[in-house]
Protein: Adenine DNA glycosylase
Amino acid sequence: MNFAKQLINWYTDNKRDLPWRNTTNPYYIWLSEIILQQTQVVQGLPYYNAFTTNFPTVFDLANADEQEVLKLWQGLGYYSRARNLHASAKYIVNELEGRFPDTFNEIIKLKGVGDYTASAIASICFNHVTAVVDGNVYRALSRVYGIYTPINTGKGFKEFKALAQQLIDKKEPATFNQAIMEFGARLCKPKNPDCDNCPFNTKCIALSKAVITDLPVKIKSVKVTKKYYNFIIILSKDGNTILEQRTGNGIWQNLYQFPLLETDKDASFSEIVKQIKLINYLKDQSIEVSLYNEKAVIHKLSHQHLYTKFWIVTLDSALPKGIALDKITDYPVPILIGNFIEKFNF
Structure:
């Protein structure tokens, strides 16, 4: 079986017309690859267009304020990608004089860039023969070749990387890498793969043995933890509220949120009111407290589920150091907060 030839033939006839496929500019390819990490094309495309419009060159991105970058990224999740993107743009401009690195070993040094992204950029932009391995590739190769090695292990990565490197078309590495990613996204999907139209359906081991749903194999991850978040939305007499910027190294680092009370379990109304009254700028103030959502909003992250309630606190006095309500949409916030702001309609 000439895997590469059959794959490229299929891709030539079926590839989608996507903007990053009409360029070999490493800045644009890098942008697309970072945006599409953990993100499907249909969701990532508007963000790609927004970033290339607002930051048409790596110099524009490097010179942007981090808050502007995070705001443009809002809703895409995994915000460390945006922070790493911004940091790497500064590195390219300040340390490399705006020249994008052109070898795998140099590209992989950029923050937020791993083997897959470095391989994609190196092959697509500089024609280096280095195979990509991502979820689409794991899925396609495990099924076609009947591989049961768990993909989320070091052994699994080495085995699939070696196989992909063996299969890659040495003359057309860029086309091969884009083809296998497209194949996994369009035909060899996680659920309901289109086996009838698959170019490998007569050779696919998983199809012949009826084990499509068993592959690829992945070892179960750690147990998901529960957290209970209570956001305090303060509405002052002078039309202000409070937003606080998160610090530390969490997933929402440098994003803004309403004051947060985290509890060990779903707290009662009286327990939350008691804690609200201990907040410095609310002590000895005349306030009214109401619960916006009786049923907690469950925000699911890869490692934890956030059970979230929003508490409305009406303050019968001014909040001179607060943020005007009509300005809160200017701040980059987690999608959980953004959805509330949109629904509450300040």
